[in-house]
Design goal:
Largest interface: A-B, 37 and 27 residues
Number of helices of chain B: 6
Shape of chain A: globular
Oligomer: heterodimer
CATH class of chain B: Mainly Alpha
Order of helices and strands of chain A: HHHHHHHHH
Number of domains of chain B: 1
Structural class of chain B: mainly alpha
Distance between the termini of chain A: 24 Å
Largest sheet of chain B: 2 strands, antiparallel
Number of strands of chain B: 2
Strand content of chain B: under 5%
Number of domains of chain A: 1
Number of strands of chain A: 0
Shape of chain B: globular
Number of helices of chain A: 9
CATH architecture of chain B: Up-down Bundle
Structural class of chain A: mainly alpha
Strand order of the largest sheet of chain B: 1-2
Order of helices and strands of chain B: HHHHHEEH
Largest sheet of chain A: none
Radius of gyration of chain A: 18 Å
Helix content of chain B: over 70%
Chain lengths: ~230, ~230
């Protein structure tokens, strides 16, 4: 029963996105603009930024996540879908799960384009061999972003200045994810191959995801309590 | 009118804790600056440690209290817990700012620069300040019941972020911070430890006194509002 509700909700989000192509396209464009801005912000056009690849990648992805998470409840709010969902006999935790899965898939879709682009733009030296390691770290980070993002966007949803509130709530909580994502990437990019460091950061990301999953499950009933 | 000027509940407790905190803060100040031995390595600046660390620990206690208050609010929906949560975070945030400032002063004296990104704890506290400053932004943009509910949830999520920030910053950087407390005990002589304990007790008492005072303030404000309403209706 719950699984059917969950798949129905996720499919609703994905179908909406496939038809409108609003969120993911905007996220990808935003990420590419960010990468260009970072290049010019950090140095001249000739500077080698290989050393900063992890940071550039995860700063970009963090801001892109804020953009995507901010959009995640827009359809529900504007078309009053949320009212319907809340009176339907769907447990709140299923709503949380469905939204988290949707955000996770959005982020993954964006990264499929952005992570190779980071390599093309910034890395001088080996990059493509480490793609598997970067992908694992990115999937873990997406899990963190999806879980904390769902909780914070739920909180920001009915506040007055919600577009302003979400980044203020969400970004400080994302700092550990950026640190760990950048660290894990840094450990395997540009000729580096520090697997113990990579493993440490990935374990940290897993711990972050578990902790936020617990907090979300414990509090999500109260988010939509009206 | 038969109403006597009733005491606000908690007034006496606030007073007792206030007096206790004052005595302890004075004792700690005297002890730290006049009695405790000077650190052979760092000299006079090391004395900032007694307050810096004590305030840091107390601020974490304050955030823990706010997390517990958040859980209790969500369970009971009693406004009282919302008051406790907000007051704790307000005091905790103030103390975290003090931690960052005293840490920065210490950094200037020890390492010659106001800010060191390689010091994990200083950076963590900056993140903690940002997390809890957002609490008030959230509070100010929601109404009534939602405000209290969201605040409670955020207090819980915020407190979950604290150890994550601590850990993430620590994985990332090499240690430059003086480590005072290790697994095997305190890394200082007893003549220093005693003043640290006094200073820690002073800060905890100060936290409780401020919390009680804040709660008494809220209660008297509500009592006043009720009185004004009654006068209007009369």
């Amino acid at each position: 029963m719950r699984r059917r509700q969950l798949t129905a909700l996720v499919r609703k989000d994905l179908r909406l996105e496939l038809r409108t192509r609003e969120t993911i396209v905007a996220m990808v464009l935003f990420a590419i603009v960010m990468l260009a801005i970072l290049q010019f912000g950090f140095g001249t056009r000739d500077d080698d930024l290989t050393r900063f690849t992890g940071g550039l990648m995860w700063v970009t992805l963090a801001f892109t996540a804020v953009l995507g998470v901010g959009r995640s409840y827009v359809a529900e709010r504007e078309q009053r879908v949320l009212d319907g969902l809340l009176v339907s006999p769907v447990p709140r935790v299923v709503l949380l799960g469905a939204k988290a899965i949707a955000i996770f898939l959005y982020m993954t879709a964006v990264e499929i384009i952005v992570i190779p682009l980071v390599g093309i733009f910034f890395v001088k030296g080996p990059y493509w061999d480490s793609m598997g390691w970067i992908a694992i770290a990115a999937l873990l980070a997406n899990l963190c972003i999806a879980l904390s993002g769902t909780l914070f966007s739920g909180l920001a949803l009915f506040t007055r200045a919600r577009d302003l509130i979400l980044p203020v709530l969400f970004l400080p909580a994302l700092v550990p994810v950026v640190i760990a994502g950048a660290g894990a990437t840094h450990a395997v990019v540009g000729g580096a191959h520090d697997m113990s460091e990579w493993r440490g950061y990935c374990l940290f990301l897993a711990a972050y995801a578990i902790l936020f999953a617990l907090v979300s499950i414990a509090t999500y009933d109260a988010v939509f309590d009206d | 009118m038969t109403d006597s000027p009733a005491r606000i509940p908690g007034e006496r407790a606030a007073m007792i804790w206030g007096v206790l905190a004052t005595i302890l803060v004075v004792a700690a100040t005297i002890g730290v600056f006049l009695v405790a031995p000077e650190d052979a390595d760092q000299g006079v600046i090391q004395r900032i440690f007694y307050f810096h660390v004590a305030i840091a620990i107390t601020s974490l206690v304050a955030f823990a209290v706010s997390c517990v208050a958040g859980i209790l609010y969500l369970r009971t929906r009693n406004d009282r817990w919302d008051d406790v949560g907000e007051a704790s975070i307000r005091i905790g945030l103030l103390m975290s700012v003090l931690v960052v400032i005293t840490g920065s002063i210490w950094a200037k004296a020890s390492w010659g620069t106001w800010w060191v990104w390689s010091d994990p704890r200083l950076v963590t506290y900056l993140i903690v300040v940002l997390i809890y400053a957002a609490y008030f932004v959230l509070r100010s943009s929601a109404e009534d019941d939602r405000k209290m509910r969201y605040s409670a949830i955020y207090a819980i999520a915020g407190f979950a972020s604290v150890p994550l920030s601590f850990y993430s910053v620590r994985v990332a950087e090499s240690f430059v911070h003086p480590v005072v407390f290790t697994g095997s005990g305190a890394n200082m002589p007893d003549s220093m430890l005693i003043w640290f304990v006094v200073s820690q007790a002073a800060m905890l008492a100060l936290f409780i006194a401020l919390l009680e005072l804040d709660l008494v303030g809220r209660r008297s404000e509500r009592a006043l509002r009720r009185l004004a309403l009654r006068l209007e209706n009369a």
